[in-house]
Each structure stands twice: as C-alpha cells, then as structure tokens.
C-alpha cells in the first residue's frame, strides 16, 4: 500500500511539474515568436554621448572616437544607429540603464544585447561587440569590458 501511495504521489508531482513547464513555455510563446532568430534579427547600435552626434568636439580624443565609430558604422552597417544623450535612454527603455558615464555604445540583436562604457579608441572593441551578438565567446581577452545589457523596451518605443 505504501508503494502504491508513493508511486501515485511521484506521478502527481511529475505531472504537476510538466503542466507548469508547459504553461510557462506557452505563456511566453508570443514573446519568443516576436523575436527572430539571432542570425536573422536586425542589429541595433545605440551610441550614447553628450553631443548630438559622434563628430562633435574639438578635442583629439573626441575626434579619434568619432573617426573609429563612424568607420565601424560604415564598414559593418548595423541595421539602425541611434545617437542619444544619456538622459534620453528613458524614451526607449522601461528600466534604469546600467550606464553610469556620459559615453557608451549598446549593441542589440534579437534577445542578445551588450554594451561598453566610454569612448572606444580601439576599433577592435566595436568589432568584438558586433561579433559577440552572434557568438557569445567572441570577446576573449576583453572580459569585463563588454557587459550584458539587460533591458525592457517601453511600450511603443522602437529603433
């Protein structure tokens, strides 16, 4: 009798776990269906800087940053490039941004997103972020510089 009760309890537990996982997967189906596969998803690049454009500023660092950034955009052709001031991030993202400085670059492709802070004066950093969208291990040697960007879009916001 104990064996039968134990068997029945195990069966009920397994059925409950299966039902819960089925419900969870199906409840998120709409979200997942809206996200194309990473390889097919558009690539969005968001440049955060105090000026309206990457080319502003007379300082050598600003000029170098603008040169590398614009060269990367011309060579890699992300689907969208949005240039914002830090305070404008709230127009797109529902949650507080992890960006602490005035300069950052965010890369988003499907469910994957990464960012780095500061003005990248090394073209390799842009290239690694772009490749990391398809291959999460692409930042070997740059761990800690390229960080995951967790976000939630505001309703109606688009790039």
Give a structural overview:
The protein is an alpha+beta fold and 159 residues long. 37% of the residues lie in helices and 16% in strands. It has four helices and five strands; from the N terminus they run ααβαβββαβ. It has helices at residues 2-27, 29-34, 60-76, 123-132; strands spanning 43-48, 80-84, 104-109, 112-117, 147-148. The chain has a five-stranded mixed β-sheet with strand order 2-1-3-4-5, covered by helices on one side. The radius of gyration is 22 Å and the shape is globular. Residues 6-37 and 52-58 have low confidence and may be disordered.
Mean pLDDT: 74
Shape designation: globular
**Radius of gyration (Å):** 22 Å
User: In what range is the share of β-strand residues?
Assistant: 15-25%
Distance between the termini: 63 Å
Question: Percent of residues in helical segments?
Answer: 25-40%
Uncertain runs are 6-37, 52-58
Structural class: alpha+beta
SSE order in H/E notation? Answer: HHEHEEEHE
Oligomer status: single chain
> What's the number of extended β-strand segments?
5
Please list the strands of the largest sheet in the order they lie side by side. 2-1-3-4-5
Please report the number of helical segments: 4
Task: Let me know the largest β-sheet.
Answer: 5 strands, mixed
Write a concise synopsis of the structure shown.
By secondary structure, this protein is of the alpha+beta class. It has helices at residues 2-27, 29-34, 60-76, 123-132, and strands at residues 43-48, 80-84, 104-109, 112-117, 147-148.
